[in-house]
Amino acid sequence: MTQDHVKIFDTTLRDGEQAPGFSMGGAQKLRLAHAIAEMGADIIEAGFAAASPGDFDAVNTIAKEVEGATICSLSRCNDGDIHASGKAIAPAKSGRIHTFIATSPLHREYKLKMDKDQVIERAIKGITLALAYTDDVEFSAEDAIRTERDYLKQVVEAAIDAGATTINIPDTVGYTTPEEITDLFTFLTTEVAGAEKAVFSAHCHDDLGLAVANSLAAVRGGARQVECAMNGIGERAGNCALEEIAMALRTRKDFFGVDTQIDTKKIYMVSKLLASTTGNPVPRNKAIVGKNAFAHESGIHQHGVLANRETYEIMKPEDVGIEQDNLVLGKHSGRAALQNRAQKLGFSLSDNQLNSVFVDFKNLADKKREVFDADIEALILGEAISTGGPWNIDSLYVSAGSDADNSPEANITLSHEDGRVEKISQKAGGPVNAVLMGINKVTGHDLHLDSFKARSVTEGEDAMAEADVRVSSGYESYHGRGTSTDTILATARAYIDVINRIERRAARNHNQQPIAAQH
Ligand code: KIV
Ligand code: ZN
């Protein structure tokens, strides 16, 4: 590693995923991990292996299948967590264990009920055990920002002495300011005995909207790893946004004098994939990846940009993978044209994925005269996050409208991969209600629809619709997504997507041993 390289430690699948409303299934995490590795993240924190059998499996599968990045698992400084992380990352070509303990007075007194020496002792024990699994061990002093400076120095020295090669200084509660964190990193990187043996890392939360500014300021103070998450997701207000730190370091290399290895042309694709997977759209005005990030609306700005883009643009949309030419494909376009378009949009499709998207594309092209980039993107994202069966919608016909004698009715035929074919006619107060009640009856699920959104992906009467549903079953909340040129069918597909997810998870859990048996 050179002194001007800042490592990107992506925690979308750990700190990001643990935030309410952002949970993902194992297959979804794997797909995202591939995309994040392809984008050039140095390290992917794939999860918290000890949290549940599902988390263990997700980290373990990513460690087996994802290449090009170091795969990391989080653990508290205790034996059970570290064994789980060690086993989960074992198949990775390059694996890291990240272990943490809180160091601030508040956390020591009220959470851990431990004194200063006990915390250091626990940290050393954790690092030593982690080193039995890998020589790449990261140590975090949780709530480091609110820790007494002299004591933090002592903790960090002990961690380096015990063999930690990365030292993370989290701003766990998003409390610090740029000046303060530059000063802290300058102090630690120059005053800690053995500092040259470790990479110092920043992990900033966005409670005061300062996560990116603080991470940049930490780099100014000597941090050479930044922990961040795509679209800025994470606990509470989120983490430092990966797309923002990567583009800030690249665009202002003249000022910071450092860069990352992120292939910025992949940023937009990963951002979209994450938004579709979790059902949390990116706000229009979000820096770098929002719909308006490169839109020039006012006449004065448009005039300037037409004369010279640099009047109002410090980055080009192409730099983050936003394609501008929006070529139109139609029903005569072939597989090669589709693959070519997908690549321009930042997606590399395997042959199987291309085949599946091509079938959807042909069906869509039959219904729509022109297929735009946004349509293709929606088809690819649909393919990427769909769970497959067991249930499939064979046909759906709905009558709707206001008539005193007839209420809306849905006629649905569903098939299951075990060979069952089920038909139902269901009346209800509204067409969506009729469809969802019918699906519940056929599949035997008693789900509650918390919210649903349908939007058109492109313009025009024949535009494709994308539906997102949020559904709860007991204490669990699920997100599903479906697309179609028919809004009701898109909603039904999104609902079936959730049911498939629940049934697949139940089947997996049924075949799984309890986590204690795995260690
Ligand atoms: O915010 C935090 O302190 C964390 C640690 C576990 C690194 O997420
Ligand atoms: Zn955090």
Features:
alpha/beta; TIM Barrel; 4 domains; eight-stranded parallel β-barrel; three-stranded antiparallel beta sheet; 14 strands; 42% helix; disordered C terminus; binds 3-methyl-2-oxobutanoic acid; binds zinc ion
Write structural notes for this entry.
The C terminus is likely disordered. It is globular and about 80 Å long. Helix 2 runs antiparallel to helix 12, helix 3 runs parallel beside helix 4 and helix 17 runs parallel beside helix 18. 42% of the residues lie in helices and 19% in strands. The chain has 519 residues and is of the alpha/beta class. The protein is built from 18 helices and 14 strands. Strands 1-2-3-4-5-6-7-8 form an 8-stranded parallel barrel, surrounded by 8 helices. A 3-stranded antiparallel β-sheet has the order 9-10-11. The protein has a 3-stranded antiparallel β-sheet with strand order 12-13-14. It folds into 4 domains: 272 residues, TIM Barrel (Alpha-Beta Barrel), CATH 3.20.20; 29 residues, no CATH class; 63 residues; 120 residues, Alpha-isopropylmalate synthase LeuA, regulatory domain (Double Stranded RNA Binding Domain, 2-Layer Sandwich). The structure holds 3-methyl-2-oxobutanoic acid (KIV) and zinc ion.
Draw up the topology in text:
Blueprint: E1 7-10, H1 12-16, H2 26-39, E2 43-47, H3 53-65, E3 70-76, H4 79-89, E4 95-102, H5 105-112, H6 116-131, E5 137-142, H7 149-162, E6 166-171, H8 178-191, E7 199-204, H9 211-220, E8 225-228, H10 242-251, H11 253-256, H12 267-278, H13 299-307, H14 335-344, H15 351-367, H16 373-385, E9 391-399, E10 409-416, E11 421-427, H17 431-443, E12 448-456, E13 465-473, E14 476-484, H18 487-510
Parallel strand pairs: 1-2, 1-8, 2-3, 3-4, 4-5, 5-6, 6-7, 7-8
Antiparallel strand pairs: 9-10, 10-11, 12-13, 13-14
Helix pairs in contact: 2-3, 2-12, 3-4, 6-7, 8-9, 12-16, 15-16, 17-18
The chain binds 3-methyl-2-oxobutanoic acid and zinc ion.
